[in-house]
Specification:
This protein is mainly alpha-helical. It has 3 domains: 2-190, no CATH class; 193-224, no CATH class; 230-265, no CATH class. Helix content is 61%, strand content 5%. It contains 9 helices and 4 strands; from the N terminus they run αααααααββααββ. The strands form 2 sheets. The chain has a two-stranded antiparallel sheet. A two-stranded antiparallel ribbon has the order 3-4. Helix 4 crosses helix 6. The longest helix has 36 residues, at 155-190. The protein is elongated.
């Protein structure tokens, strides 16, 4: 049962896959589920009112997102699938903006775009999709493109809408950018690190050599406290009689064990 649910929500990606990829696939499936329920409900509502074109557009958007999910499941190429899903759903947002949707609430669906796009395709492509959506929406309000609009909005509503949309975009962009930078730092620490065979300094991506403590402290939350081990004490201070104390027994979990020994002068 657990494996079956994992295959459904993660498009049959293995559990050993990159955690970031699994999170994006899970969020895409959650978004797909919410979109299907909402779009099918609105499609039935529009069809009952005689707006068959809008109902067909919503159903076509559902079919597209389901097709993208199957593409990701079969090819395991989630990056291309997410880009197709994001950019091919932009016309659905624009149609809601042009027609006004139900009670002129169609533009409110725009807020979903920056959050979902930036999460699925990253800061660069997500910004391109989010800014393209709001840019085309602005273009539809000026002549000669304003003739395509099937409804009208008050200037006060448009001002608040565009300002709030940009706030949502900048918040989502900042979050994804910081998360992307954090992932790059983690990848540096998990990859190959050029280290000097003699002094043990590490070369960073700018070509500078750093002490290993300074490098790890900069790229992680680790902190260092210096001591000296018994083996090095014998090499550096052979004139001292070193008595090594046995470490305390483990009590479960991870325990920080200090280097315990005493130095006595002959």
């Amino acid at each position: 049962m657990r494996q079956w649910l994992h295959d459904i929500f993660y498009c049959e990606f293995p559990r050993e896959a990159d955690n970031e990829v699994l999170v994006r696939i899970l969020m895409y499936n959650v978004f797909l589920l919410v979109f299907l329920i909402t779009a099918i409900s609105f499609a039935i509502f529009h069809a009952a009112r005689g707006a068959y074109l809008m109902a067909l557009i919503l159903l076509a958007g559902c079919a597209l997102l389901i097709g993208v999910r199957e593409y990701i499941r079969i090819t395991k190429n989630h990056q291309r699938g997410f880009k197709v899903a994001v950019f091919f759903t932009l016309p659905v947002f624009l149609i809601n903006f042009i027609t006004g949707g139900i009670q002129n609430c169609g533009p409110l669906w725009h807020y979903c775009c920056p959050m979902v796009a930036l999460l699925l395709v990253g800061p660069l492509w997500g910004s391109l999709a989010s800014l393209a959506l709001i840019g085309v929406s602005l273009l539809l309000l000026v002549p000669p493109f304003s003739g395509l609009m099937l409804t009208s909005y008050t200037p006060e509503f448009l001002l608040r809408f565009f300002v709030s949309y940009m706030i949502v975009y900048f918040l989502a962009f900042t979050y994804e950018l910081q998360k992307s930078r954090a992932r790059k730092r983690l990848k540096i620490l998990s990859g190959l690190l050029p280290i000097c065979a003699s002094c043990k300094k590490i070369r960073d991506d700018k070509g500078y050599w750093n002490q290993i403590e300074a490098y790890i402290a900069e790229h992680s939350k680790a902190e260092f406290s210096h001591s000296i081990c018994p083996e090095c004490s014998l090499k550096l201070y052979p004139e001292f009689d070193i008595k090594v104390q046995a470490p305390p027994p483990a009590t479960g979990g991870l325990t920080r064990l200090p280097c315990l020994f005493s130095l006595q002068n002959d």
